[in-house]
Amino acid sequence: MSTEAIPAEKTKRNFNALFGLTLLGLLLLMWIVLAVATPSFATALNITNLLRQGSLIAILAVGQTFVIITGGIDLSVGAVVGFTTVVVALLINAGWPIWAAVLATLLVGVAIGLFHGFGIVKMGLPPFIITLATMTSLRGIGLLMTNGNSISINSDPFQAFSRGSLFGIPYLFWMVILVAIPSYIFLHHTRWGRYLFSVGSNAEAARLSGVNVPRTIFMAYILSGLLAAFVGVLLASRIGIGNPTQGDTYELQAIASSVIGGTSLFGAIGSVHGPLIGSFILSTINNGANLLNVNTFWQRVITGLLIIVIVYFDGLRRRGK
Amino acid sequence: MSTEAIPAEKTKRNFNALFGLTLLGLLLLMWIVLAVATPSFATALNITNLLRQGSLIAILAVGQTFVIITGGIDLSVGAVVGFTTVVVALLINAGWPIWAAVLATLLVGVAIGLFHGFGIVKMGLPPFIITLATMTSLRGIGLLMTNGNSISINSDPFQAFSRGSLFGIPYLFWMVILVAIPSYIFLHHTRWGRYLFSVGSNAEAARLSGVNVPRTIFMAYILSGLLAAFVGVLLASRIGIGNPTQGDTYELQAIASSVIGGTSLFGAIGSVHGPLIGSFILSTINNGANLLNVNTFWQRVITGLLIIVIVYFDGLRRRGK
Amino acid sequence: MTSTAQELHPAPTLAPGRTILELNGLEKRYPGTHALKPVHLAFKAGEIHAIVGENGAGKSTLIKLLTGVMPRTSGEVIWEGKPTALATPHEAMALGINAVHQEVVLCRHLTVAANMFLGEEESRFGLLQQRAMVKEAQKIIDGLGFDLPAHVVLGDLTIGQQQLIAAARATVRGTKFLIFDEPTAYLTRKEADQLFKLIRRLKGDGVTIIYISHRMEEVFELADRVSVLRDGTLVGTRNIAETDEPELVKLMINRSIEQIYHKEHFTPGATIVETKSLSGKGFENVSVTVRAGEIVGLYGLIGAGRSEFVTTLYGRHKKSAGQILWQGKEVQVNSEHDAIRLGMALAPESRRDQGLCLNLPVGMNLNLPIYKRISSNLLISKAKEKAEADRQIADLRIKTPTRNALASSLSGGNQQKIVIGKWLAHGAKLFIFDEPTVGVDVGTKAEIYRLFSTLLSKGAGIILISSYLPEVYELADTLHVFRRGKLVATHGFRTASHEDILGQALAEKQEKPGGQK
Amino acid sequence: ADVTIPIIVKDTTSFYWQIVLAGARKAGKDLGINVPELGAQAETDVNGQISILENAVASNPAAIVISPTEFKALGKPIDEAASKVKVIGIDSGADSKAFTSFLTTDNVQGGRVAADGLAAAIGAANGGKVEGKVALITALPGAGSLEQRKQGFIEQIKAKYPGLELVADKYADGQATTGLNIATDLITANPDLKGIFASNLIMAQGVGQAIAENNLGGKVALIGFDSDEKLIKFLNDGVISGLVVQDPYRMGYDGIKTALAASKGEKVEANVDTGANLVTKANMKEPKIDALLNPKLN
Ligand SMILES: Nc1ncnc2c1ncn2[C@@H]1O[C@H](COP(=O)(O)OP(=O)(O)OP(=O)(O)O)[C@@H](O)[C@H]1O
Ligand SMILES: Nc1ncnc2c1ncn2[C@@H]1O[C@H](COP(=O)(O)OP(=O)(O)OP(=O)(O)O)[C@@H](O)[C@H]1O
Ligand SMILES: O[C@H]1[C@H](O)[C@@H](O)OC[C@H]1O
Ligand SMILES: [Mg+2]
Ligand SMILES: [Mg+2]
């Protein structure tokens, strides 16, 4: 059906757990190498940093994966992140209680997802187009709301959240766990998860088997929008400002994490642990390069090469050679 | 197979010419509206500007379309553009004759395409991954070569090219024609063009029919790399510098132009005129907004909305309602 | 006999003929499946050699090895006396080996003509001669008697029509050795006859032909010799004149089948569904009634509008006029969701496009319609999920290593069993089976017909669409004949002859339209 | 070199920051210390810079030199960092009282200087009349320093040059070509446009090209910000009327030097203004300016 399918034709679903493990193996390998190569990698402080740094993209990547499994794509997530930092900042500064501001911001994410579902299902637009349009427009709306400036958030507790820890693990990473566990159950242990896969594999067959395809598509984009808004809230807490230009290229990082984690852009293949590992691989590359004091230009060159190497080895193993 | 396929299931190929025409119709409509709304739109100066402004993305979009028709994607083109501005700038400043510098730069583009073909065909990497990796690494290499600096090009004739015109039409737009005509013949009137479609439609069927699928994939990425390098040369001529950070997000603009022009990201559906019209639709939105002195933030909002409207109407007609 | 085959049953002597292709211990292993155990077999130049065997016996695998689609695990292939690697399809084609594969492997986005000439385009000065190719393709199609346009996009044709194109395509290529893998699975008698004419003509031109089918009468009609595969092993080769159907079936499934068609008559119960002058895209003015306990058969040629009729009934397409009455009450079926809620189930005709999620596991495909039922609260009951899938796999003898294997790794017939199996546990009132036994072996067919009876005995009604006349003929309590979108005749159980029914299905221009109720 | 003092800039890919890094590198060599050069990949990537700061703290340096991308956002992270090491700020401010020392140009002041330069150029081209339409092109929305320049520029025009009318206030997407396209369209839409302020390096390159392309050098005045070879050439050719130039090399050099001193507990100056100067064709040969235009990169 596609060029991507040629080499991967023998993907074995039953290898899935092993595959996750072994991509995890590659991640662990990187950690071991870094722990040996630099004195500062394996310190509590650095591990905390690393967990914080990977968290945002990790959560986005999970949402993106739901969409990609249906055969779609959500280019808007970076813009949603930027936009929702503004929303939550304005609401908090307007004196809303934090919980209410956060809830309302999450609803904004849901609304954006609904809009995407509407564009795809009712207007027949390609997911690429409708989410690209949202990406462009949302940044514009955010800039209009802030007049291009940053909004400083007047709430210390709100900002303290992103710096806090529980049992030595930063709250931000707890949020990843908070998202990952229900997502895992949802994707792999409920019928809606199955429906996502079936729609991505063959929407017509799914439809004729009684799967509500439109509703499934709505669900995927709503989840992606919701998680992006959640990341927006977390980012706002981390940077203490609302700024619509934040989250630039996050969509690309989220998609890349997902694909590195074994998701197929042609749909029907994906997991929750894959994108999580994928995103922490990317953060580890950055963190490691900083600690090793690699020149930032070399850092880009190396990031590209490592992506190739990791996906190549992972692919080799998956094809069972 | 995918959510995108649902609404478009009955795409009629024989409507294709009409479709091109009618997307063209939308573009002409925009021009008429702008000509009425602003005194400066329908001036020779502005038409010249508009043609220049749209040319670079138009050429990239054609290359991208070849790749997308095979079911692939080339995220590297923006980085290739930036990188090749550096290459051509360095060569010209090193005293190479312009023709030799340009030729060598185009060969760099071919080499990048070859590398992508190799990654996809021989290493089994998803196109998204290998071209994302190149995108990241190439910017790094370019930055290493320039140390983040812009390289000022010491050649007036080289820079004069992008400002020149023939029969009142800027050279840059002649370059679009120079690319479009052979591309059109190649895609729609040669067997290689047909093989691109067959690989995107059903790579297995193509293989069973004796189509050399690997070679076809190589060809698509080489063409995309070559055209991106060509755009790099033109951009260097236009801005008079070599700078590896230029061409940022051009890949997205090229893909968007292609998809607006009716190309399906699932492969096997696309044309040469579609992406050309798509890219000039995007340039017209920008040009018009500038002439109307629309607030830049509103401009983004409007761009997103117009993309939705245009693709929606185009889709309506294509589905034959 | 020139064959070196070490057959389990000694092959009868044959008229002497030159060996064109010889398999010497040809073997294929997939991960988890030993699909082909070393096979020794020699094909004679100019013969029609049938290959039969159960679903998953290894027939298509053999073909894939011979056409370079898949690499073999071990063994030798000797072409005209010389060993050959057959590593790529290209290599096979260069030798003159071509195939019409079981799954239509063409490009649905390209036109019929483009598909026919794919890889062998006519160019002049590097430019495609598109018009000439369309003309040429049309000539070939017309010459074969297929009523199909060459300029349309392939994806707009039905599966059967695509299958005909795949066959027509083989004639464009300079072929010495041509393999048909279940070419008639989706064809009606009329198209099948056209295809047989083509095959005989090719044979007359000296082409060697391998013919794979689950329809025994075709084997006896066409073949010179027949080989039987069972579980990847070649269990015998016979001259056609020296064998009969029971023997072949016995060889295939290692037991005998008294009768394939299992027909139990139930007293029809209440009306389940009734259409009144239903019209839609591809059919008009169709009135059909299905009662509990009965099978309503729909027969017609390809494109007669039967599938469009049932998919409209099922809410997949909009009706343009008429009414649907469900258990006596008029209902609006606006989506397949509505249909399923009412109690309909549809096993569609195209397993690849409509029936299966090919890159998902067998178990998931089987359970897709019933996930709601096997979920307790929010979570899927893993135990039930396993049990349901395993039950269907056992009941229908779906040959798969485990329920977790991808549907795409199953043989064609076994994939088809999933399409049917997924509805059997659903508990619908009305089952619509559109070409349910396409590519299914005789043993399993008998099994499926028995399952029909079970459904009927539980008070369900069945609409059975088949292009294979014997199937509807032997099973339908009421048999409707469609022609060009109209219901033109209705018969009771075996009340008309095959010839009459065929005649009614064929479009004879002078005949007046309208039914003969 | 056992002592490590990392320097964190806003965006390593721009030439301006490379000069800062060159100054820091030189200081590292002179002082015999290790100077990791860090920075995000875009000025707008606030979160990225926070991460880099966190990583830098984790590597146990003697002190940290940082140029905060965003005033408010970097405040808390800098407070947190300063609880472990000494932090020296350069170039731009942050909402933190924890800086041991601070070496910066005032970007609002830079904007004012640009307005003065533009007014002077327009006056010179129009026989002393400081009148007409002017436009402002900002590379990207959301970058703090660019917003400050914009603020200073607009304030100054309003306050001091009533004859100048700001007809367009545009944002681009950080690409020279976009700056070029916007400038061309502005010139088309406003044939009587008198001047443009392009508030950073890459925009000045794009807008300069638009002026060169349309042969408007001298007719449309252009003020840029920061400098490189290309812009100096434009200045020489009369395409650009003036550049607001800071002293990035010194920020880098003195930043590291101050950080080392601070880490040893020596007393350092709390605030240093490194200055923003208007460079025109007239003063570009002055040794002091020449040194700013041609920093000694190694
Ligand atoms: N790609 C594959 N991967 C793994 N197993 C496969 C693959 N293709 C076929 N098989 C297995 O090989 C065996 C033989 O399959 P094959 O398709 O040759 O059967 P067949 O005789 O053509 O059956 P049918 O009559 O159903 O078409 C089956 O058990 C099937 O599941
Ligand atoms: N020659 C043809 N070319 C293109 N389309 C055709 C042709 N003949 C029929 N069709 C299409 O097929 C539709 C009817 O096909 P349908 O699948 O419902 O028929 P069917 O009786 O079920 O035949 P089949 O056995 O192929 O399933 C018509 O509406 C028409 O659109
Ligand atoms: O002073 C610097 C500024 O802070 C930054 O944003 O851009 C480069 C320089 O002008
Ligand atoms: Mg088979
Ligand atoms: Mg049918």
Automatic annotation (TrEMBL), chains A, B:
InterPro entries: ABC_transp_permease
GO MF annotations, alphabetized: transmembrane transporter activity
Any coiled-coil regions, as ranges: none
Superkingdom, natural source: Bacteria
Keyword Transmembrane helix: yes
Positions of transmembrane segments: 17-38, 50-69, 99-121, 127-145, 166-187, 217-237, 258-285, 297-316
Cellular location(s): Cell membrane
Alphabetically ordered keywords of this record: Cell membrane, Membrane, Transmembrane, Transmembrane helix
Membrane topology classification: Multi-pass membrane protein
Any one GO cellular component localisation term in the record: plasma membrane
PANTHER family: ABC TRANSPORTER PERMEASE PROTEIN YPHD-RELATED-RELATED, RIBOSE IMPORT PERMEASE PROTEIN RBSC
Protein name as annotated: D-ribose transporter subunit membrane component of ABC superfamily
Protein's gene: rbsC
UniProtKB/TrEMBL annotation, chain C:
Record-listed E.C. numbers: 3.6.3.17
GO MF term list: ATP binding; ATP hydrolysis activity
ABC transporter domain ranges (all copies): 21-256, 267-509
SMART domains in the record: AAA
GO CC term, one of those recorded: plasma membrane
InterPro entries reported for this sequence: AAA+_ATPase (IPR003593), ABC_carbohydrate_import_ATPase (IPR050107), ABC_transporter-like_ATP-bd (IPR003439), ABC_transporter-like_CS (IPR017871), P-loop_NTPase (IPR027417)
Keywords annotated in UniProt: ATP-binding, Cell membrane, Hydrolase, Membrane, Nucleotide-binding, Repeat, Sugar transport, Translocase, Transport
CDD domains on file: ABC_Carb_Monos_I, ABC_Carb_Monos_II
Primary location recorded for the protein, binned into one broad class: membrane
Name of the featured protein: Putative ribose/galactose/methyl galactoside import ATP-binding protein
